[in-house]
User: Fold Putative rRNA-processing protein EBP2 from Eurypyga helias.
Amino acid sequence: NGLKQCLSEFRQQLAWVERLDVTSGQVVGPVSQSASSKDAVDPENDFQREMSFYRQAQEAVLEALPRLRKLQVPTRRPDDYFAEMAKSDQQMQKIRQKLKSKQEAMERSEKAKQLRAMRKYGKKVQTEILQRRQKEKKNMLNAVKKYQKGLSDKLDFLDEEQTLSQGNKKGSASQRTKKGPNAKRRYKNQKFGFGGKKKGSKWNTKESFNDVSSFRSKVAHNKGPGKAGKGGKKALNKRPGKRARQKMKSRAR
Assistant:
């Protein structure tokens, strides 16, 4: 009785829009639908307990929204609404850096996992190739032994070996043609030519014999510039004789 009297003394008779209190009972959800009573939620089960709280809050919101709209109270935040954040910019920056470092660590871990998978696959392929080669070698040796002992007169293993060698040669030749010459070879080709026939490359042909476009009469008759001497002959710088060279050496000493 005393508690009820105190409650009646400090209770304020205000409108619901000032109080915004909504009371709802336990809501039966998918988790507790199979239960026979409303008190079937196990309090020790965290998932069921949190789900019951969530559904009770959802039921209160669904009950309060129509009443607020009826009273013409806005329930959505306006676009120009400004509120100070609870956390400072430094704290948010630390959180961003932590999230970024965590994401980078996950990416590095994923790359390392992919590399390990690729190495494992490459090792598996290499093992399969070695096993296949050993098997082929073993089959060929068995065929040779049978032929030597006279148990078989077939020489198919020789044909298989020949086809394999030809296939390897063709593969290597195709690889060479696809690869092309290296930089050193291209430089030498550009400097010295591209090989081919060189003997008789300067011989005249019918077309070169009839082509007189490069003929210069002044050059042919020693009448061009820089000609000196009698009869237009070019003055040649001849090497001095042996005696003259010896005299020059003795003077130099």
